[in-house]
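Entry 14. Ran structure prediction on the chain below.
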Amino acid sequence: MPLFNMAANRIACLGLNTLYSTFCVPKQVLRNCWGAVEQARGYYVDWKMLRDVKRRRMAYDYADERLRINALRKNTVLPKELQEIADKEIAALPKDSCPVRIRNRCVMTSRPRGVKRRWRLSRIVFRDLADHSQLSGIMRARW
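Output, structure tokens:
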């Protein structure tokens, strides 16, 4: 039992950062989604878009830490005390660092619904740009 307490204290002191370092880096996966996106203009359409950008950035920054802590939480082989420590650590992270809180929005109008995921445009903007031949490779259906 004392050995287990030492291990629990050591993991709590390290902040669970060194454990599970052999996992694939989720930042590489997240970079494809929102890490490498650049802003097209110097301002955001509205405060909702700015809030979403902040959430994306925070989720990207905390992705590694969340992966490690969640791996400890969901590991049924570990003792319950370690899982509870991991639960407390995940609860201590900022709420906006969770990728579930990210909302797909149109990058032109900040519209939250009807967004074409591949182009990150709402259906209205997408159709308008496609009609005026401003999207390469996109044509209206003709038959």
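The chain is about 50% helix and 5% strand. Will compare against last week's run tomorrow.
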